[in-house]
Amino acid sequence: MDMKKIVTFGEILLRFSSNIGDRLFQANEIQTHFGGAEANVAVSLSKFGHEVYFASKVPENPLGSAVERHFRLHGVHTDFLLKGGDRLGTYYVESGIGPRSAQVTYDRKFSSISQMVLGEIDFEAMFSGASLYHVTGITAALSPSMKEIVLYSLKKAKELGVTTSFDFNYRAKLWTQQEAAETIQAFLPYVDICSCGELDALYLLGIKQADSSLEAGEKLTYYYDQIAQRYPNIRWMSSTFRDVISASTNTLQGNLYVDGVTYQSKIYSVDHIVDRVGGGDAYAAGILHGILEQRSPEDIVSFATAASVLKHTVNGDCNVFSEEEINTFVNSTPGRIVR
Question: Which three-class secondary structure state does DSSP give residue 133?
Answer without folding.
Answer: strand
